[in-house]
Design brief:
With about 650 residues, this protein is mostly beta strands. It is built from nine helices and 38 strands. It is globular.
Length: about 650
């Protein structure tokens, strides 16, 4: 075996050998080679931080052509690689002299702090803690709400925080969630739980209830939202208001306000109530019960960027009215801006630091940030909840728009800025010191509802929803089992009913439905679905053709059905059947077992790109991927008894 030395080495080999003299010689002769990558596609300046030692890294930083904003294909910085090495001297130099960020996330939201923690680099963790201001165990991850939780609005009452998010055509409508620490959230109720008040029948996917707002005044909680109809008439946007003396409800029947616009919010001041709506921020006064409009709408301010100004929220603080807006559309250009006035009706001056929140790094894991609302903690700290999205593969935000949280600081001239204008954070110090958070949580509360026991023993979990209202006898719980009435309409129609799903809250998960195989008529189906809307879904189902029972996977993409291989089952009726899906990003692998026999994979779909906003161009697409149970009865009645549904993040 020959050993390469001196002139035989290339830069990668010299770095691996930790031969500083050879690194210097190579870079002197060929300065541009520092811009090359290793055989594993790692930029050489980053690779040096992992294996080359501090002296080599210091030379590369100070004397080579390497740029310190170089990242690898997963958006890892040089500090990520230094954290892998655990080299204390190198990390200190990169943080204090080069200015690298300990909490910067790669495309998968992994930070140098997390790498040091996972590798148990004790000395490095102590140093990171001193620099950040908190141990890793007292940090939290964004997003704080994973899966389809867009358009957040928040209010604090005492030590309790309440949040609402858009629900679109899903029922119950507008989830109301509770937290004591701003990080861990649990759905405690919904704004509309009476199917007769929901008015979702016939609405296309992506319509329904948009951008709700929750507020509190004089013992009453108010929730308002836009009710978005199909584009078939002259009026297709109205506002609704519900109220209750309990945050979880029940809320009153929705009052309808016939003022066009979207994204309403309610501002309370000295016993008077005002509604704000886009475009920009228009304002009008409401009656004492907030159910009627009693003045004409007038424009307060149109916005800073002046493209798609929406999501207005008002805050009064220190003699100013602060007007927060979402601008730029709910895609990559989304942002939060603010303006202020000494009087409610203006004029409003724009903040010189606008936008106060926007993602500027196109490679970052958290994107499309905007639509925020501020909240003040009991000890006087300020935070902003806002929507965001995470992308996989070629830009598919399959989890939908999620909710993130970042701190607000106030400048000396009285302006609020979010996360020091650095854009969305990946890792932050937890807001409430008394919170008993065991370790940084990527998937708080709702996403931790990983069902590993019988799902329906205590009734229907609150994270289950249905596209549009179910039939009166469509979903029942009996003896701890779920009785689901199969729909007479297929999944590809807006008339389909009783599809019971939950939000997909992680890129990787398994979901299983367990039931006794029912006797079926020809063409009937009982199974599970990965569902986005009536235009895009995948289903895995038991069906019957003549006398034969079979399992099949079917994709529906726009107007096209793709039917995959049939898996015949011999005499399955009455036997315990488990249908499951194993998900890794855009890959779906469908498997089953009968009567507790060995699991068998039926079909693997490598790219379900269409289960997200960007998948196809058809209708209103800004919800998120779901997973759950369904049935199709055709003309004859069919009831399916599900004994369990298990969802486990990987």
């Amino acid at each position: 075996m020959s050993i390469q030395t001196g002139a035989d080495m290339n830069l990668e080999q010299a770095i691996e050998a930790q031969d500083l003299k050879e690194v210097i010689r190579i870079l002197m002769e060929n300065p541009s080679c520092i811009e090359e990558k290793t055989k594993d596609n790692i930029p050489l300046c980053l690779y040096a931080a992992q294996v080359g030692g501090f002296a080599i890294v210091k030379y590369i930083v100070e004397y080579s052509r390497a740029s310190m904003n170089t990242v690898d294909e997963t958006n890892c910085t040089i500090l990520h690689y230094a954290a892998m090495s655990g080299d204390m001297e190198m990390n200190r130099y990169l943080v204090e002299r080069v200015g690298m960020d300990i909490t910067a996330g790669d495309r998968n939201l992994v930070t140098p702090y997390q790498i040091a923690w996972e590798n148990g680099h004790k000395e490095l963790l102590d140093y990171y803690e001193k620099q950040v201001g908190a141990p890793y165990e007292k940090m939290y991850h964004n997003p704080i709400r994973t899966g389809m939780f867009p358009d957040p609005s928040i209010v604090r009452v005492g030590e309790d925080y309440y949040m609402v998010n858009s629900s679109f055509i899903f029922f119950p409508c507008i989830p109301v969630s509770h937290s004591r620490d701003l990080i861990h959230w649990e759905i405690i109720g919904h704004a509309i739980t009476n199917p007769e008040w929901a008015h979702l029948d016939g609405l296309e996917g992506g319509r329904g209830y948009w951008a709700p707002d929750i507020s509190y005044d004089n013992g009453t909680f108010y929730i308002t939202a836009t009710y978005r109809l199909n584009d078939t008439g002259t009026i297709y946007r109205k506002q609704i208001v519900v109220s209750s003396d309990r945050p979880e409800g029940p809320y009153c029947e929705p009052a309808v306000i016939d003022e066009d616009g979207i994204d309403p919010s309610i501002f309370h001041e000295d016993g008077r109530h005002y509604m704000l709506l886009n475009r920009g921020a228009r304002i009008f006064e409401l009656s004492s019960d907030c159910k009627r409009q009693i003045s004409e709408a007038s424009l307060l301010y149109y916005g800073s960027q002046k493209r798609a100004p929406e999501g207005p929220h008002l805050l009064k603080k220190d003699g100013y009215y602060y007007l927060f807006l979402a601008e730029g559309g709910t895609g990559p250009g989304h942002r939060i801006t603010v303006a202020r006035s000494r009087t409610l009706m203006g004029n409003y001056e724009p903040c010189p630091y606008n936008p106060i929140m926007r993602q500027m790094d196109e490679k970052a894991g958290i994107q499309r940030c905007g639509h925020g609302k501020p909240v003040c903690t009991g000890d006087g700290k300020w935070y902003m909840v806002y929507l965001c999205g995470r992308r996989v593969d070629k830009g598919y935000s399959i989890l939908g728009r999620e909710t993130a949280l970042d701190p607000i600081t106030w400048t000396q001239d009285g302006w609020p800025i979010v996360n020091d204008l650095k854009g969305p954070s990946v890792l932050q110090i937890q807001p409430i010191k008394e919170s008993a958070i065991a370790q940084p949580s990527r998937h708080p509360s709702d996403a931790d509802l990983n069902m590993t026991v019988k799902a329906f023993q205590n009734g229907l979990p609150k994270d289950f929803i249905t596209p549009r209202s179910p039939e009166k006898d469509g979903i029942r719980i009996k003896n701890g089992n779920l009785i689901l009435k199969a729909s007479t309409y297929p999944l590809s129609t807006v008339s389909a009913r009783n599809i019971l799903v939950r939000r997909q809250s992680a890129f990787c998960f398994t979901a299983e439905a367990e039931f006794k195989a029912p006797a079926l008529s020809e063409g009937q189906e009982a199974g599970i679905t990965c569902y986005y809307d009536e235009n895009t879904w995948v289903c895995f189902f038991l069906s019957r053709n003549n006398e034969n029972y079979f399992l099949q996977v079917k994709e529906h993409i726009g107007k096209e059905d793709i039917e995959h291989t049939l898996e015949e089952l011999v005499d399955p009726v009455g036997k315990r059947l488990v249908l499951g899906v194993d998900t890794k990003y855009l890959n779906r692998s469908f498997y089953y077992s009968v009567a507790e026999e060995n699991v068998k994979v039926v079909e693997e779909l490598p790219n379900v790109y269409y289960l997200c906003d960007e998948g196809i161009s058809m209708g209103k697409r800004f919800t998120g991927a779901m997973v759950g149970m369904y049935g199709y009865s055709k003309e004859e009645p069919l009831f399916i008894e599900f004994e369990d549904f298990r969802y486990q993040e990987i």
